[in-house]
Hints:
Blueprint: H1 8-12, H2 15-34, H3 39-48, H4 52-73, H5 79-95, H6 101-106, H7 112-126, H8 133-136, H9 169-173
Amino acid sequence: MLPASATRVERATAADALARINRQTECSILYHAAHPEHIERRLAELDREWDVDRILGTQFSCTALAGLILGVTSSRRWLLLSAVTMGFFLQHSLQGWCPPLPFWRNLGYRTAREIERERCALRAIRTGNTPPESTLREPVIAEPVIPGTQTPRAQGAGAAARPVSTPNARSSCGSAPAE
């Protein structure tokens, strides 16, 4: 069973990296609630922010292209680099995880959904509304299910599946997440 597209990267991200990203987003929302004069600048920054899927797509394309060029001009063995890279890209597309993902997530690159969460909260603050409480809380992501079972991976006693609590960006902001 493949994970839902909207949460596949978040589910595949280590808990500490996900908590750090969510904490930084929450801090930004709280800062801008106290300093609304900076909201427009931050919204412009969010419009320019690259999400982790864009980073990975660029990385995979450049690596595969380099392997192809080196395979044609230097040694055919370099074609293996392109093949492995495309395998990683397929794995990321289907599962939301690939070997370079932890590196980029630890650097703080967010998903489009995480960026949109901050954008929605800032828009609510800008219009004088209180952002929905769910944008000020860390999103809760369901525990991964071990293939071949219907139970979540145990991470200590009492581990259980938890539903995603972050609202759909379209319903909370009135616009779809930016691509």
